[in-house]
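WARN no homologs supplied; continuing
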Amino acid sequence: MIEGEFLGRMPDEASRVETEDLRRILAVTSDEDLAALIAARLQGSARQVDVVSSLGVAREVIVSQPVTLAIIDVELSDGDGRELLAELRSESANVTTPVIMVARVATRELQAECFSLGADHIIDKPVDMEILEASVSSKLRRADEIRRESRHDALTGLPNRAAFAEAFERAVALARRNEERLTVAILDLDHFKSINDRFGHGQGDDVLRRVAHMAGDTLRRSDMLARWGGEEFVVLLPETDVAGAERALANIQRKLKETPWKAPRGDEFEVAFSAGIASVGSGAPLQEVIARADYYLYLAKANGRDRIVSEKMEVQPPNIRILLAEGDDITASLIRHRLAREGFEVIHHTRAQDASRISGAAGVSLAIVNVEGPDQEGFMLVTDLRGRSEFGDIPIILLTSMGSEAEIVRGMSLGATDYVVKPFSPVELVARVHRHLRASASAQPTTGSQA
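OK structure emitted
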């Protein structure tokens, strides 16, 4: 509570509502009678109403916590409410926040200006509280719909990446406070492309929906299942160690195998997945946790699929060779060090021209090529690798500098798979290497596979 300027917060029971379900209403008015009415009439079990009397305090509240809806009086003791409206609309976090303006006399000119600044509704004084309550309820419902749409995957109905990232931050804070274990798993459907190829994308979509439903039913209510993208799902498992996460995923595997899968014309097929599990250390960012889980998922794919791999298991990584064409010694040393930590063998050449002499017998599984510089050697290497059958399908990641869009476009047109812009995060580069190697492993046919 901000003393002096803070005129009200209702109700106390709102503090018991889950953070993600709480609707925070900020009312900014110097009119004490209106402030009292708003604080009393807009309260609800899932609403926190903050009433402040000045622009300065309103700005403090907005910075300190997200606002679901704002009610702003045009005439304030220390300025014009339209200033705050313009500021809200200039910030990406509040572009869609509903804003109701209140004015002593809402002239046509004032209405036009407020609407042009982004107001959603304007109400004259004295305020008819029934109209204000109806407007607030309507706009909160619409805000909830927009929030759900932006946080959920349209195909499966599961939370999406953004929602998972928010839940991860809350879970990490809770686990740290209660000294509890927390794990994250990432799973990827095996041979999903063949399902799409054999039966069509409609059947593939149906498989994703059914997997999401069955996995959600198998997990605990406290766990969170989200769609990460494509045929990938992520699971957040609070109060769970790695062994517990392995058992939870094994239950999902068993359920999928016990379920009959048939295409519309009667063809039977199998649905299975590979998964990687990583424990969450105190303060570990989501990117790092996902990168570790992704690595174990890669090991699961590379060692036969339809399996779960975690940091507790002794799984030998396959002997993977990566070709690196990078002339900068510092960058090359950083990349070699990080990839060596992951068990990869790095074949490094300072010049792309030298790297082009590598033979297919070297067994290279991925290439990282610096395409900076005027000599065009990096582009020549990409062209050369793509023109040779033994390297025709390997992933190629470009290294380029910020602002070099033309280089990226050219490299991708020559057959590069992905690009990383310098300066880059080593964690992100390693994650991309794992992702592309896993995709390559997934694309390799398995003898006797139905899917």
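The chain is about 45% helix and 20% strand.
OK
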